[in-house]
Amino acid sequence: MDLIKTWLAETSISQHTLQRPAVTLSYAQSLDGCITQRRGQPMALSGEQSWVFTHRLRAAHDAILVGIGTVLADDPRLNVRLVEGQNPRPIVLDSRLRMPLEARLLSDPQRALWIATIAGAGSQKRAALQTAGAKLLDISPGPDGRVELVELLSCLAALNIRSLMVEGGADVITSFLSQKLVDRIALTIAPVFTGGLHAVEHLPKGMTPRLQGVQYQRSGEDVLVLGCPDW
Fewer beta carbons within 10 angstroms: which end of the chain, N or C? Predict the structure, then answer.
């Protein structure tokens, strides 16, 4: 826990300076840069010690965000279970409101799910999701027709979210990096090759961000890489 507190303190950026929440990108990948073998099929890569690290990192953030693809593939809880700490607010990017009503993220009445979607999307499902306890954040579409991330982050700042942990999947990871919306990266590298879906599918031409202030730490058989991208 000291590593996380120290690292977050050393890399602290005020929300007032950013005009949005500070964003930490955190995920596990194989040696060949993949997060799973096939899209839509979850794959456990990191070991137990790395999972403990991830849960400690979750507890240090106000909110945690994944894309709807991660929800459909893995039905995650996005909470803090392996350590003591506060559960972050769960947020799902879901432009077309595909969120299953039976998803585990809708089963905790003490921690309402926020769904970032396009204004007017899924008109027939809106009432059902709201009845299930979800809060819908209507955001303008970006050029790709998906939730516009800059507007979403401004919305979250207005809702008093100061720090956001982004966990995936590949489309979400790529989008946040492509738009230079990542302030810190906590990467877990597992000692395995998968030959599967790469975490970062593409970046704009000429964009090759390098991490600054890099720290490395063993975590069981995994390696943790911490740093801040130099935009």
Answer: C
